Amino acid sequence: MKRKSLNEKRVLLGITGSVAAYKAPDLIKAFKEEGASVNVVMTDASSHFVTPLSLEIAAGNKVYRGLFDEPMSHISLARDADLLVVAPATANLIGKYASGIADDLLTTLIMAYRGASIIAPAMNWRMYENPTLKKNLKYLKSLGVVEVPPEEGRLACGEEGVGRMASIDSIVEAARRALGPKDLGGKKIVVTAGPTREYMDAVRFISNPSTGKMGYALAREALRRGAEVTLISGPSSLIPPEGAAFISVETAEEMKSSVLKSINGAKALIMAAAVGDFSPEKKSSGKMDKSKVGSIKLKQAPDILAEVGKKKSRPFLVGFAAEAGDNLARAKAKLKRKGADLIVFNDVTAEGAGFGTDTNRVVIVDGKGAKKYPLMSKDEVAGAILDRLASARG
Questions:
Q1: Which positions ≥6 away from 138 have C-beta within 8 Å?
Q2: Given 157, 203, 324, 329, which residue is catalytic?
Q3: What does residue 198 show for φ and ψ, rounded to 5 degrees?
Q4: Is 5 a residue whose pLDDT tops 80?
Q5: SS3 sequence, 53-67?
Q6: Domains, the chain, with CATH or none
Q7: Using 50, 70 and 90 to split pLDDT, how confident is the model at 3?
Q8: Does the structure show a pLDDT above 50 at 261?
């Protein structure tokens, strides 16, 4: 299941004369997959890189080009849009935007538009580093325009540098944040994610199959809702969401230390990490000879959730209970035992749930009872958890 975070939103997409304009049909498709409708406005130069017909087919709407093709379209398009996205945005467009120049349909409707705005620059690295361009970007950002910065890589001219238009995923994520609810605006949220590793020697460790997907989804969703997010993650191949303060850890002790330092001033701690329950009593400094190891003694690893739960002054506390089977009673007992405000229970043996999946099937438990949710994407699960958090904290 895919969460349509832009459902029924109206996106006005401006396309300018950059080689990256050829990516526009894929960007339109991505917006539509998120539930948005898209109206496209092209500059004359952009038609050298992508055809109006291909964009019209992708959007399912008329493509607008000329200022005088349809009288007052610069007003109606600007008035009806929920979000303005210019991608790709050339140095020329950025300069006009910053200077208030309105000499074609796109720049004229920009002048009339009053909502959230995103620009995704795309140009040669020399142009992107030009002081005038930087000044224009700084001014636009001071007005609230969101820049999705270009990426580093091989450019159309054959040179290497920062100038490639941001990925479609990055632009869509910026749109989610621009249009999402801001019910966590200004609140500090600490999220843990991924597994921990408890080393027995220099190369061997005890761990679990957690990939971090649930925790990273929670961090993304909290950022979309305006929170100040600290993500503390065990080993994971996932890319931390842009805008989160990221702390990388390996062991349960390292995670405990980072959590206790990070929760100062936090409104909530969401312990989505699969912190190991046990660690070896002794760790060999080298690699143990397996022929000489009879057994390995274990000790209990730190119980971070319980330790935070005992504090007199603590953030709103969300824990997770991953069980092998429908052991909801254990989750209810864990809520009380750990001193948490919410426990998110899931059966890791259930189809579509558990470690490494893109979906989950959870029950959210609090002091008043338990609410069962259907199979959802982990983004949707994150939304449900943060809905509860937001309502609890006001």
A1: none
A2: 157
A3: -115, 110
A4: no
A5: HHHHHHHCCCEECCC
A6: 10-179 (3.40.50.1950), 188-393 (3.40.50.10300)
A7: low
A8: yes
